[in-house]
Specification:
47% of the residues lie in helices and 12% in strands. By secondary structure, the protein is α/β, with parallel strands linked by helices. It has an 8-stranded mixed beta sheet with strand order 4-3-5-2-6-7-1-8, sandwiched between helices. It has a 7-stranded mixed beta sheet with strand order 10-9-17-14-11-13-12, with helices on both faces. Helix 3 (35-45) packs parallel to helix 4 (61-74), helix 28 (819-827) packs across helix 30 (866-888) and helix 29 (836-844) packs antiparallel against helix 31 (901-908). The longest helix has 35 residues, at 574-608. The chain is globular, with a radius of gyration of 32 Å. It starts with a helix and ends in a 10-residue tail after the last helix. The model is unreliable at 234-248 and 272-311 (pLDDT under 50).
């Protein structure tokens, strides 16, 4: 029992808490704050920085909203930053509803609403730009909320988060909101080191419990044999022995599920007659092809499963079956993640075409009202191009797609309808998981593999948690549900390993950029700039990692000593003999790689020598095909690229990598410049001419064109062969070569060689980790010195103090991924003399990034036009920059990508949306997205002013270009590009 004094003290604390800003803030919600929210908000009120790490949907943003409330109450400004514009728009509308539009502003790359308000929502890049430019809007800034701060692990945009955290004034409180990460304490330690006292608040508890399922055929089965609390899965998070702990802590799988998967595979093997047989994704026959049977193409060995039983490929249930099962189990609304834009659209088509209708008449009427309100400003002529009718029809039935290729107004409509519970099933790509508030009762994952831009990879535990975090609506659902579709190559244990694993660390992607370098050197001496960069989270993690690396190196050295004892030979030094054998293996591998490179080089020379109209033979898969060369070009790395129309009417892009066997010229056909393979009639006529000429043997003859082979490559190959012969001679003459136990010793020697290489690699990592970021900064400065953006204060000592030149001051105002490319094009006059549409097309080459490697997406630019010459000049600038980066041994930056230039020029010249989409391979959403990113860069160019000490000619050129960029902004931001909900 407490004493009177203790009860009195507790009473005083309750009175103080009741009169606090936190208490007043909490009274504005119709639900009590969770303990982690109260703890984090109390730290904010005490004047501390805060890091909150909690699951998706747990209510982290309440802490950020309290910081906004506190800023308004104390007369300070508050900035709320987000990683993406869609999230900024959503948070702006939320804060306007709470505080009124006179107090809240919005700043993104292409939108500015009330920018001088006391509360401004913005993308993180906007705040970074304000810090470097010394904006007056930073006056009275007291709080900065960094939503989705785990985005700093993003390879391309992550460094911006660290720049902001490092450069914000010391008096500003930083509230960082993150998804659950296993090294939150480490990240919090760094924040404390850089920003001062920072409270770390971690919550693993989901506000709505999550139940894991797998769907086998038409059956929806729990993944685990008993209900699992998230707290059971977090014991190993962040510990050194986490892998072993997690494996041991995994809860037991549902035996009924394991039995169902086994039976389904046997049913597929026996012809699919049971109720668990599998249909195709779009429906159709239950008896699909059976891969163990002999076919006309030859015999195929039966696939054998457990116990030697025959098995067929276990297909996932059809999309219609999934929707029906979820509806029957009362698990709608649902988000179904499909890692493909085309797959999302295909799913909607499949489900709607089967007659699915998930809405009542009243709901359909409300959906129509929202659609009419949202699309009222879209011209009727554009609606047909945008596929409006089917999109609206699917929405009225409660089904929609959501992905980056959708028009923003369409995407916003889907978000509103789904949040209101009117749309029941949304097929979405993973971009939906990036903070947008669209919770569902159920999340379905059609696959656990996705395309990451270069390969198909399995989802990480962090990605799985982020996606399934959308399941369970707070205040509506008792529990959320995550469903994974059972397939042939997916085991329940694999799903469990993703669902139960909690070790996904936050790893910094910070690196110095060109814009960052000149901005730092404008504000501080070089030595201080290096110190600032060494305060980054990347360097913090690298320095901590050195301790573990040193321990690994010590263990590896002890292992080497043990192996050396095991391979000791009485005839000589077997370490020396093992090193010779390893050198032979390395030389043979070098020779093999050199031969493969030689074949690619030969293919590249053959491609470069071709002309439009040449008929070639090339290999695609196992078959050789004939094709007509339509275009000869090069990608951003200078690799030759052929655009070829094949005899099967397909247009393919060939490079030495995609066609390593090369191409063989067998003749030529005359192809007029007016022939456009994107027009079906032209394409069909050209293919028919090719087929007729091949049948008649009526091709124009000509000697195969080629370019001389490189004597340097042959000399290198000869050198490798000579070295290989010398090493083989040394091996045969070594005393240990005659040892009767030679091969036994060699087996140990191979382990020794691998261990020795690993030890050397560890030592190099230790040496390179210390001061890594500062060395990268020095390399960036060397490139900027070479190009004239920096100059030494003392020309005799360029390694000392540096001064930013007039060109460098312009680079400091360009905030884009390809900042140096844009600045170099400005400095060298590449953009001079261009018209409005031409300038827009040229700048698009500094912004556009194709999803897939492509030479063109339609609307080609004439090579002899001013824009065509400008694009070639931009590619030349890119190659020069890549050469300098290669010499400096830093990662090559993205080069110019001209594929969008023709479409952007046509749009600025007044082309209709239908004409743009018909002539390109872009969706309306993609075209708008790239135009909006282009508008951001165009706005920066328009705001550039000549440096005070600029020469008269430079002043005139910059002024003219700025005025022209302002005209570009007006012509670009029209029609579909200008539509937005905010």
């Amino acid at each position: 029992m407490s004493s009177p004094a203790e009860r009195y003290a507790a009473s005083r604390r309750r009175q103080a808490a009741a009169g606090s800003e936190l208490a007043r803030f909490a009274r504005g919600y119709d639900f009590p704050l969770d303990p982690f929210q109260e703890e984090a908000c109390a730290a904010v009120e005490r004047g501390e920085g805060v890091l909150v790490a909690a699951p998706t949907g747990a209510g982290k943003t309440v802490v950020g909203e309290f910081a906004v409330h506190l800023g308004l109450a104390r007369g300070h400004k508050a900035f709320y930053t987000t990683p993406i514009k869609a999230l900024s728009n959503q948070k702006y509308l939320d804060l306007v509803a709470r505080h009124g539009e006179e107090h809240v502003g919005l700043l993104t790359g292409d939108t500015s609403v009330n920018p001088h308000a006391d509360v401004v929502v913005m993308t993180t890049e906007v705040l970074r730009n304000m810090l470097y430019s010394g904006s007056r809007d930073l006056d009275r800034l007291g709080f900065v909320v960094m939503d989705e701060v785990h985005y700093l692990a993003d390879r391309f945009r992550g460094p911006v988060w660290e720049e902001v955290i490092i450069h914000l004034p010391a008096e500003v409180q930083v509230i960082s909101l993150s998804a659950t990460v296993s090294n939150a304490e480490e990240f919090g330690d760094w924040l404390g080191q850089v920003r001062g006292r920072t409270a770390v608040v971690v919550s693993e508890k989901r506000p709505v419990p999550l139940t894991q399922h797998m769907m086998v055929g038409r059956r929806l089965l729990p993944l685990y044999s008993r209900p699992i609390d998230v707290a059971e899965l977090t014991g190993a998070a962040g510990t050194a022995e986490s892998e072993q702990s997690e494996q041991a802590a995994q809860p037991p799988l549902n035996p009924e599920l394991l039995k169902a998967v086994k039976q389904a595979r046997r049913a597929a093997a026996s012809g699919g007659s049971s109720k668990n047989s599998y249909r195709s994704r779009g429906g159709g026959s239950a008896r699909g092809p059976q891969p163990w049977k002999r076919s006309a193409g030859g015999a195929r060995a039966p696939r054998r499963g457990e116990g030697g039983a025959r098995t067929a490929r276990l297909k996932p249930p059809s999309r219609l079956q999934v929707v029906k099962a979820l509806e029957a189990a009362r698990l709608l609304p649902a988000i179904v993640f499909v890692f493909s834009r085309a797959g999302c659209e295909q799913a909607v088509n499949q489900v709607v075409s089967t007659g699915v209708d998930l809405t009542t008449e009243a709901e359909a009427a409300r959906i129509r009202e929202v659609i009419e309100r949202r699309t009222a400003d879209i011209p009727a002529g554009d609606l047909g191009v945008l596929g409006f009718r089917f999109w609206a029809h699917a929405l009225e039935r409660g089904v929609a797609a959501h992905h980056a290729g959708l028009l923003p107004v369409f995407k916003e409509t889907v978000e509103e309808l789904f949040s209101a519970g009117l749309v029941k099933v949304v097929y979405a790509t993973e971009t939906l998981a990036l903070g947008i508030n669209m919770p569902a009762r159920t999340v379905v994952l059609e696959s656990l593999r996705k395309w990451n831009g270069s390969a198909h990879v399995t989802l990480s535990p962090g990605e799985y948690t982020q996606l399934t975090g959308r399941a369970g609506r707070r205040g509506i659902d008792i529990e959320g549900h995550a469903v994974v579709l059972a397939t042939d190559d997916l085991e329940p244990a694999t799903v469990s390993s993703l669902a139960s694993r909690r070790t996904y660390p936050l790893v910094s992607a910070f690196r110095p950029t060109y814009n960052m370098a000149v901005n730092l050197l404008e504000r501080m001496p070089r030595a201080r700039a290096r110190e600032v960069l060494e305060e980054s989270f990347a360097q913090f993690q690298a320095d901590r990692g050195v301790v573990e690396l040193a321990a690994q190196a010590r263990r590896k050295r002890r292992s080497l000593e043990s192996l050396e004892k095991d391979m000791a030979c009485r005839l000589g030094d077997f370490r020396e003999y093992a090193a010779i054998r390893q050198a032979i293996a390395d030389a043979e591998a070098d020779l093999s790689r050199d031969r493969a490179a030689s074949r690619r080089s030969e293919a590249g020379r053959a491609m470069s020598a071709l002309e439009r109209g040449d008929v070639v033979v090339f290999r695609r898969g196992r078959r050789r095909r004939h094709g007509i060369v339509l275009e000869i070009g090069a990608n951003r790395t200078g690799t030759p690229t052929l655009t070829v129309l094949g005899e099967d009417s397909r247009v393919v892009a060939l490079t030495p990598d995609t066609a390593p066997d090369g191409v063989m010229r067998v003749g030529a056909l005359r192809v007029a410049d007016s022939v456009d393979p994107h027009r079906p009639r032209d394409r069909d006529r050209l293919v028919q001419r090719l087929v007729d000429a091949l049948r008649a043997g009526d091709l124009e003859e000509g000697s195969p064109r080629s370019r001389p082979r490189s004597s340097r490559a042959q000399a290198r190959r000869d050198s490798i062969v000579d070295n290989l012969e010398r090493l083989r001679h040394d091996m045969r003459s070594h005393p240990c070569h005659g040892c009767p136990d030679r091969e036994e010793h060699a087996r140990v020697g191979r382990k020794w060689s691998r261990a020795k290489a690993e030890a050397e690699r560890l030592q190099r990592r230790i040496e390179t980790r210390t001061g890594t970021i500062a060395r990268l900064f020095d390399a960036v400065c060397d490139i900027l010195l070479e190009l004239g953006y920096l100059q030494p204060v003392d020309r005799g000592h360029p390694e000392r103090e540096l001064r930013v030149t007039a060109a460098g001051k312009i680079l400091a105002r360009i905030y884009a991924e390809r900042d140096l490319l844009i600045a170099e094009c400005l400095r060298t006059g590449v953009f001079e003399g261009l018209g409005v549409g031409e300038l827009a097309g040229a700048l698009s080459a500094c912004v556009y990034e194709p999803r897939l490697s492509a030479q063109s997406i339609g609307l080609p630019v004439a090579p002899g036009s001013r824009l065509g010459q400008c694009l070639r000049a931009q590619l030349g600038v890119s190659h020069r920059l890549h050469d300098l980066e290669s010499l400096a041994r830093i990662e090559a930056s993205s080069g110019a990508e001209p594929a969008l230039a023709g479409a952007v020029q046509a749009w600025c010249d007044g082309a209709q949306l239908a004409d743009i989409l018909d002539a390109t391979e872009l969706t309306a959403g993609d075209f708008v997205r790239w135009c909006k990113q282009l508008l951001d860069v165009v706005g920066q160019i328009a705001s550039i002013s000549p440096p005070p000490n600029a020469a008269p000619e430079q002043t005139r050129a910059i002024t003219e270009l700025s005025l022209r960029a302002a005209e570009v902004s007006l012509d670009l931001n029209r029609g579909v590009v200008s539509w937005s909900a905010v």
